[in-house]
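Checklist before submission:
- one chain only
- standard amino acids only
- sequence pasted in full

Submission:
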Amino acid sequence: MAAGAASALALACANSQAGCFADDLPDSNNQDSNCDGIDGNAGTAIFVASNGSDLAPGTMDQPLRTLTKALEMAKQSTIKTQILMGFGDYDEPGTITLVDGVGIFGGYDPADKWSRTTSQTTNIHGATLAMTARGLKLSTTLGRITVDADDGAQPGESSIALAVVDTTSLTVEDTCILQAGKGAAGAPGTDGTAGTQGGSGESGGNGNVDDQSSPGLGGQPGTNADCADANGGPGGVGGSDPNFAGGKGTDSPAGVTGGAGGSNPGCSGVSGTDGDTGLNPGADGTDGTGGAAMGTFDDQAMAYVAADGQAGEAGEDGPGGGGGGGSSGQTGTLCVDGAGNGGGGGGAGGCGGGSGALGHGGGASIALVAIRSPITVQHIQLITLGGGSGGSGGTGGDGGLPGTGGPKNSNGSSEIGTSGKGGDGRAGGRGGAGGGGGGGPSIGLFSNGATPTVTDVAYSVGPGGVGGGSSGATGAGQAGASKQTVP
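Returned file contents:
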């Protein structure tokens, strides 16, 4: 262009109230509405280029290298309202936090006087939570940039391109692309531990056919160190002077009845009765249910909360057996008085099997989250690559085996009778299986509390994650939702 023509154009701009004196917000037509040589406001802009340096001042001639540094600089400034980015790729390993009133615009060519084009893209490769905005009240715009969130890496980690909370004035427009990566698979639940086996009861002590003051002691019950409620009951002591009746076996902690002691002796002793065995083994634990197709969003932590399954319940402990009754002694004018035999101790029940732990839900893949934020999105793409699979629920542990009751004692049985056997313990119940985690959802736009204004948005939504399995009959997690918008 000739020097005279350039001067004439500058003069025309200077005399145009609709042009040169207007604040120039970068637009889809690449129009330089304030005639400062670029689409945008050079005086209030911070410049970023893929070959820049974060030690530079952020000018057109000396641009910064990262968006993170540009936002830090804008936050400290009172006049910077635009960040203009050259085309190319930018790695931003930390979550990018938008600054109120500071727009971000891509598609510029630093080598061509920062001209703007639609043929070159500005790609921001971000963290798993790539970009956030909270409480923005001033006009803030994202234009012609791609925000690409990293895949979830840790178990159950989500990938979210942009999360917006309590923001009233944000516009995402002009061929922006918000792309969420893949959600990570949820962690599986651990298997429940097997229940501890119950100990067996001991035989009661020997009575004495010729000594009414030395009865056999009741046998020690079987015990279970890991679940005392499954212990057996001690055996009853043998009968002795002065009434010579055998002692009743002690009921077990679970309430299983001890055997009766022998009574009303003569020269022939009366045997004790056996302790009872529990009617039923411990009940199996209830299986956990599977996780749902969709979790929730924690707006304080800016994080998706996965749909975990439910843990199973532990199996019930098996009841211990009651102690056997002691036999009576013998007494009468025609015989020598003697003391009875002790009853056998009840066997301990097995502990219930441990519960299967819950399977954790898969991570989500969400392009845009808007919580209580009536934002505007127009002429953009929302892309998700798919939710992570749910973790399987843990298997419930087997119930512990029971101990046997202490045996009868028939020492001198013709004279002092036979003691009762201790009741056997019963097995513990099997632990319930953990429910599988729900598959991670894959959602283009997740909103809650306010409805965004949506115009000309193209969705490409990947699949939801597979639900986690479970050995329980109804414990499988649901497949993750795959939807363009929620709700």
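Reviewer check: The helical segments are 3-14, 67-76, 413-416.
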